[in-house]
Amino acid sequence: MADRPTDQEPVTEPQADQVPREASPLVTRAASLGLAAVVICLAAFSILGAYRMQTQIVRAEREESLRASYEKAIVAIRAEDSSVVEYLLDPSPARRVALGDATNGLIDAINAIEVHGSQSDSELAKGVMSVHDKFVAASTRLVDAIVIGDPAEARRIEVVEAKPAFDAMRSQIDAAANVRATEAFSALTELQATARWILIESPVVFAIGFGLLFGLWRILEQSHRAARETYRQIEQLSKLRSEFVSIVSHEFRTPLTGIQGFSEMMRDENLTIPEMREYAGDINKDARRLARLITDMLDLDRMESGRMTLNSEPVDLNRIVAETAAQFRLSAADHPIALDLDEGLRGLVGDSDRLTQVVTNLLSNAIKYSPSGGAVELRTERAEKTVTLTVTDHGMGIAAEHLEKIFDRYSRLETTETRAIQGTGLGLPIVRQIVQMCEGKVWATSESGRGSVFHVQLPLLEATAQGSSAA
Ligand code: ADP
Q: CB within 8 A of 166, min separation 6: which ones?
């Protein structure tokens, strides 16, 4: 036998724990922080890359311009050297002017080094200029010695003063120019390396960064979606709760009012025995209705929470259908109930009480929702691995968009026609729960205004196994 509910068990309202949990706030916070961190890292990487490139460009330009100044100084020193020799050979005013120009050119180049160079360049420029001054002074005295015709003195000045000064100046500039050339080359190499790094490594870094951003964004999106879904379900739950309260209070109040009214009449009025019997019958009917309501609620709750187990015994579905139909025939004269039972159907394994409940609920609905009367047909059919029960009526039917919804708890369709019909919205959810526990399916097809067909499909796996072993 299936578990029966006990009287102590509470009636269950729609519960908040039916709402799925939204994504953990910790995950959401971590994803947001991760997102911000990745954006900051990418921004820092871009700024750092741009800054590094910019400083290296500035350094390379400076090194290159200094290298060019040293080059100019070397050219100028050579020009001054040859101008001195030319002037010594031909001390004409034109040569003098040329020598002056060469000297000015050298001074300009040294000044440029002093202005644009570093501290060491400036010191070097100052040193070179003082040596240059000595060289110019020696050259002047050399020219004077030649002019007064003293070749020995001229020779001495050239060898002891002018040439060493010139050589010192030249070797200082040459050495510094070499250092500058090396520095300019290294600055250029560094710049090229940075450019290569930006060209090759930055796309990889950005691809990883964007990948991370996308992943984190997806996590956030999912958590927002989960949150939205949670709120939607909470809203739905709250709506269901109000519906539940209104349905339950209405459904409970109607029989209770009857019981109260009839019992007061029995208490206060002088009734005959037949009248007493009639009122007692009414009270009994209302009390039964209340009991059924409570039982349905408890049953559904126990099924949904997995606290109810089904019996697994051989059941004769045809017999269940025939017996249930016979019971209904007594009270539903306007609804001729026709049976079309598959005689080859036997050996189904299940819970006979619960299957009776399925047939009862479907048949009761077929009659209830055909208020103008009309035939109801119950049909069983065996296929290879399944058995299908169909309950067909010719009543008010169900709009296509509600065919799924009617299987939800407390989902009563509010139309002018259904308003007068009593119900709790628990019959079909109970049917669906039982069928699902039997690993079967239930669905409805209908045409509004022309009737409905409810299909229950149950698996015949165990029956088939039994059948074959019996054979
Ligand atoms: P109840 O009948 O107690 O309201 P059910 O869960 O049995 O609850 O049915 C849910 C709703 O589905 C009903 O309120 C009704 O609107 C609709 N319904 C069920 N069966 C039929 C049917 N055979 N014909 C038309 N409507 C139906």
A: 77, 81, 135
pTM above 0.70, yes or no: no
Distance 426 CA to ligand 1 centre (A): 9
**Does residue 77 contact residue 165 with C-beta atoms inside 8 Å?**
no
Q: With CA atoms as reference, report the closest residue to 107 among 135, 82, 144.
A: 135
Q: Which amino acid, residue 103?
A: T
Burial of 454 (0-12, 13-18, 19+ CB in 10 A): buried
Given the DSSP bridges, would you call strands 376-382 and 386-392 parallel, antiparallel or unpaired? antiparallel
Q: Find the length of the chain.
A: 471
Residue 409: C-alpha distances to residues 249, 301, 371, 414, 432 (Å):
16, 10, 23, 14, 10
pLDDT tens, residue by residue, 410-466: 777 877 878 788 787 889 999 999 999 999 999 999 988 899 999 999 998 644 444
CB distance 392 to ligand 1 below 6 Å: no
The Å distance, Cα 456 to ligand 1 centre, comes to 15
